[in-house]
Recover the amino acids of this structure.
């Protein structure tokens, strides 16, 4: 999603991911998944069935997040399928709640597909919310980044960064401790509600690592945000590109690929600097899944085929997101050199750590449960 294309870093990331990530779970498919290695001809019956359904309902896919705007428009043009986009700014938890709330509905508010934080994978299976499906490029996805039965699969990953409006902030912060300085009063914001947003929770997690915590102890992260709030530096607003550009939230804590997308979109008005902090560099993986109650199951499967094709993976990479099949594509020389050259230097990410799914779940629960009583800021 953002890293250098140099092979050394690619091997390093792969090793870290293999060590840090776990896959899980079981169940019987309700429909026969596409077999790994299936070619385009083999997928034609799926294409025909998806076109007959005519619609795909997505949720929580802002067009500037991982270049989803291009992905959606390309899918629509390629297959002639309408895309019904629900709540682009929904959190991972809200995506899952949307599935639950529409179990008995085949209407326009029922999502077919979701894109959520890695820690939500086990919940999807435990609560029977996901439909198993293996895309035709299944074999090129690392075993540790997918559920063995096809209930979910990693899509892309990045690291937590500072996104800074340089027209407002003259001294750009370089590390977490800097954010506590008086000069950043009313300037620091999260890109989500930490009680429900994976991106915001990972910001707290990263702050914990930078302040004496560990992958098993997020309390220092909550204490850090308490200090930030008490100092008057924290802005309890869910930051977006618009609030950043207006100077309402001039320092935003968010995934580097989102920050890089904003920088590209704003084209210097205002000037944006993306900072990977010197400490507390945490990486996060997101996952795709098809709703077990999808009103358009064939369109949902075709969407997954598109995203996990070389074409779809390159669209994510253009958006600054490191796609899950990056290593495979790099080996096959399927990534244009000019695109590789646009990726940030590898050394900026050398300190990145990847929590395991158990650590993520524990951290997510601790942050959601303790944010109000420790930090006391109602983020909206």
């Amino acid at each position: 999603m953002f890293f250098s294309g140099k092979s050394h870093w690619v091997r390093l990331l792969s090793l870290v991911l293999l060590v840090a990530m776990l896959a899980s779970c079981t169940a019987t498919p309700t429909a026969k998944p596409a077999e790994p290695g299936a070619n385009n001809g083999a997928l034609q019956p799926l294409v025909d069935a998806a076109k007959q359904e005519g619609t795909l309902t997505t949720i929580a896919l802002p067009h500037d997040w991982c270049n989803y705007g291009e992905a959606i428009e390309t899918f629509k043009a390629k297959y002639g399928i309408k895309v019904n986009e629900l709540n682009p700014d929904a959190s991972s938890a809200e995506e899952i709640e949307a599935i639950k709330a529409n179990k008995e509905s085949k209407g326009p508010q029922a999502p077919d597909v979701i894109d959520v934080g890695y820690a939500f994978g086990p919940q999807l299976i435990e609560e029977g919310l996901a439909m198993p499906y293996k895309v035709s490029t299944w074999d090129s996805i690392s075993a540790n980044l997918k559920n063995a039965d096809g209930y979910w699969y990693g899509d892309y990953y990045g690291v937590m960064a500072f996104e800074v409006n340089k027209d407002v902030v003259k001294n750009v912060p370089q590390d977490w401790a800097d954010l506590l300085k008086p000069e950043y009063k009313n300037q620091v914001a999260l890109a989500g509600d930490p009680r429900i947003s994976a991106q915001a929770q990972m910001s707290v997690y990263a702050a914990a690592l930078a302040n004496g915590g560990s992958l098993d102890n997020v309390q220092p992260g909550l204490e850090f945000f308490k200090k930030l709030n008490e100092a008057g530096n924290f802005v309890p607003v869910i930051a977006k590109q618009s609030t950043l550009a207006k100077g309402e939230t001039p320092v935003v804590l968010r995934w580097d690929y989102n920050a890089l997308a904003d920088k590209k979109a704003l084209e210097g008005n205002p000037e944006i600097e993306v900072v990977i902090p010197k400490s507390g560099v945490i990486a996060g993986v997101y996952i795709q899944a098809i709703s077990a109650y999808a009103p358009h199951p064939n369109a949902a499967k075709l969407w997954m085929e598109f995203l996990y094709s070389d074409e779809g993976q390159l669209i994510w990479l253009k958006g600054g997101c490191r796609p899950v099949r990056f290593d495979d594509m790099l080996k096959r020389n399927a990534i244009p050199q000019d695109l590789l050259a646009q990726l940030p230097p590898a050394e900026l990410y050398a300190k990145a750590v990847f929590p395991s799914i158990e650590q993520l779940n524990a951290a997510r629960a601790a942050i959601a449960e303790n944010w109000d009583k420790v930090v006391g800021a109602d983020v909206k």
